[in-house]
Design goal:
About 15% of the residues lie in helices and about 30% in strands. It has helices spanning about 40-45, 85-90, 145-155, 170-175, 235, and strands at about 35, 50-60, 60-70, 75-80, 105-115, 125-140, 175-180, 185-190, 210.
Length: about 240
């Protein structure tokens, strides 16, 4: 779905089903059995990542940038600065009186869950979860939606943090640009399990299996200027 750039609504329309509809761009050409359009799975993969990669075309050449993101319902918000090229491109109509055409993008999120070691080099792989989103991104210009988007980005990294920090002031809001991308043309892809060893390689003397990759958090380190008496908040203790 495409939302005009000045729309003040902060969430996309409620989903019509528990799955996204496959399209020519979201059906993989290889390993189709790993593809999924389950809405809950897509959301969990997006929500569990801190960084996404935003792809677009600039001057006829592809560009991919790592950046921060946050999901609110069926909408993704992508962080940027007012001077970044994709943010400028997303709000430039050909004629001043024309509406914002948006920016055609492809956004990806990936988690690596394991290193899959086979007996042969050819069958080495990764256990992973990934999401690919195709669509048209628009720059958020409505002030209320922009503030909501900023809170969404902060809470995406640390749930509850937006209520435990100073909100952005007018100068900071003006210096920050946000892209909005609705979740419409979306797919997930997942690999799990062990290596696919060939039968003829079973007698080879090479270790084979999976090395799990897990994400962890260390003990929080207080800032040098943290005032005495300010305790670690509960939402960080349970992170």
């Amino acid at each position: 779905m495409t939302v005009p750039p000045d729309t003040a609504a902060t969430t996309a329309a409620a989903p019509a089903s528990d799955a996204y509809a496959p399209t020519d761009r979201t059906v993989p050409t290889r390993a189709r059995e790993r593809a999924s359009y389950d809405r809950a799975l897509v959301h969990s993969i997006i929500d569990g990542a801190y960084v996404c990669h935003l792809g677009f075309v600039r001057d006829g050449a592809p560009v991919v940038l790592p950046t921060l993101h946050g999901r609110l319902g069926e909408r993704l918000y992508v962080h940027g600065s007012t001077g970044s090229r994709p943010l400028r491109m997303a709000g430039q109509p050909e004629q001043p009186e024309q509406p914002d055409p948006g920016l055609a993008v492809c956004l990806t999120v990936t988690h690596v869950d394991g290193l899959v070691l086979a007996r042969s080099a050819f069958h080495h792989s990764l256990n992973y979860r990934s999401v690919v989103v195709h669509g048209t991104a628009h720059q958020v210009t409505d002030l209320d939606e922009k503030r909501t988007a900023l809170d969404t980005l902060v809470d995406h990294a640390i749930p509850g943090r937006s209520q435990d920090s100073r909100p952005a002031n007018a100068k900071e809001v003006a210096a920050t640009a946000i892209l909005r991308l609705d979740l419409d043309e979306v797919s997930a892809k997942v690999r799990t399990g062990g290596p696919s060893n060939d039968l003829e390689d079973q007698e080879l003397p090479h270790w084979t299996g999976v090395i799990p990759v897990v994400r962890g958090y260390g003990t929080p380190i207080p800032a040098d200027d943290l005032a005495p008496g300010i305790e670690l908040p509960d939402y960080l203790k349970t992170l």
